[in-house]
Amino acid sequence: xxxxxxxxxxxxxxxxxxxxxxxxxxxxxxxxxxxxxxxxxxxxxxxxxxxxxxxxxxxxxxxxxxxxxxxxxxxxxxxxxxxxxxxxxxxxxxxxxxxxxxxxxxxxxxxxxxxxxxxxxxxxxxxxxxxxxxxxxxxxxxxxxxxxxxxxxxxxxxxxxxxxxxxxxxxxxxxxxxxxxxxxxxxxxxxxxxxxxxxxxxxxxxxxxxxxxxxxxxxxxxxxxxxxxxxxxxxxxxxxx
Amino acid sequence: xxxxxxxxxxxxxxxxxxxxxxxxxxxxxxxxxxxxxxxxxxxxxxxxxxxxxxxxxxxxxxxxxxxxxxxxxxxxxxxxxxxxxxxxxxxxxxxxxxxxxxxxxxxxxxxxxxxxxxxxxxxxxxxxxxxxxxxxxxxxxxxxxxxxxxxxxxxxxxxxxxxxxxxxxxxxxxxxxxxxxxxxxxxxxxxxxxxxxxxxxxxxxxxxxxxxxxxxxxxxxxxxxxxxxxxxxxxxxxxxx
DNA sequence: CGATGCTTTGAGGGATATCAAGAGGGGTGG
DNA sequence: CCACCCCTCTTGATATCCCTCAAAGCATCG
Lengths: 241, 241
Fold this sequence. Notes:
The structure is a homodimer of 241-residue chains.
Chain A: H1 4-13, H2 20-27, E1 32-36, E2 41-43, E3 51-57, E4 60-65, E5 71-77, E6 96-99, E7 104-110, H3 111-120, H4 122-148, H5 151-168, E8 176-178, H6 183-190, H7 194-207, E9 210-213, E10 216-219, H8 222-229
Antiparallel strand pairs in A: 1-7, 2-6, 3-7, 4-5, 4-6, 8-10, 9-10
The structure holds a DNA duplex (30 and 30 nucleotides).
């Protein structure tokens, strides 16, 4: 397993060039580890946190709480992701961040330490900035997905994104990756009712391209799945390969 | 009418503190003006532009083009907005930017000039960064809006956001502001069919709280409209007031 | 082994999409 | 100056996808 620093740097270097001194500076930033349980909030909606976190193990999600307590999941985050980087320069968080699975681990960095490094090593700041910009692209894709596609294509597209990102984070083994969410959460992500999630899932299973059960996502036919989803990974801005 | 520099700075100063020297540096960046017609693309999906733009007059939108040519509008931008700031640090644009109305005017800045200023005046970079982060918050709100609300609340929420941002940009006069889009575009924003747009609009008109016609948005009863929409402007991160 | 939470299936209803066509308004050309 | 066309808005009728309500399987756990 990678160290905290390796996990973080692998992600940043997927899209940004860092000189040895940039890398060394980032490696030098102190942090502490925090383990969180399933459905436990790491940061609450409306918080003004003095720290930000990087996912090290397990998975983490962001969500809005709407009137009436209804929940809308916004994004999911794997090892190396930085789900609340924006709090570095932003007063109040408009959403919460929670852990999904048992034993998720995040690294906690003090904003002041990060800001000090960014001031001396601008490339570090730019790399983090890019993280937040890729975030933006993922959100835009989610708008289109949840607005312009039917339940089937919508779910397929979501599975494609998760699987693609997991494979880039070396988290795919034997054509499957962890996706520790319940069907109800899938519904709160895609904006469809639980019953429809279950039926859409069954329909997708029957295509033989994908299966999702017991918190694992299994892709049997990537070509077929991307065709159903009209998935093009361009927006994720990974370097080719 | 404000100058290009005043327009830009008013927007940045709504959320960021800039010292006189930061402000002076930003004022010194050269730019050119570009006038664009309705539905004309300013930047195309997939472009790698060496410039970014600030809206000066009129309105501008971002959109995805999906398979089959279907269009999904992602966001709308008023005077002072910076709809493609992310191209400063990002290779390829995942969406297009287009003008909405006749005679829209944007200021065009060379990336290299902006980067030079940001390198010497970090506060300028941070202010632009914040712009992109607020963008992110707006996108997140759109995900929730288009996923978790019915057509009526969804449209009301969209109107609330546009009206609120327009009022902060001093673009509201006599309870109304320009929103130069067609009903079909409203549908491509909210993810609902044109016929439903028309009927939902009629239903909202009948509440007496809002009217949208001929490219103008008129709000007669802000309290009632925000109640229908469950609108809370917190996510837009304007300073209080 | 009952309780609890998640998944699965059935039935029916409602919101929204699709199909179709007329009305209104502005521009253009004969 | 009128006729025509095109674009957008509006309204009606019908279809369908998805939601709500309801309840039964199935696993895990105390």
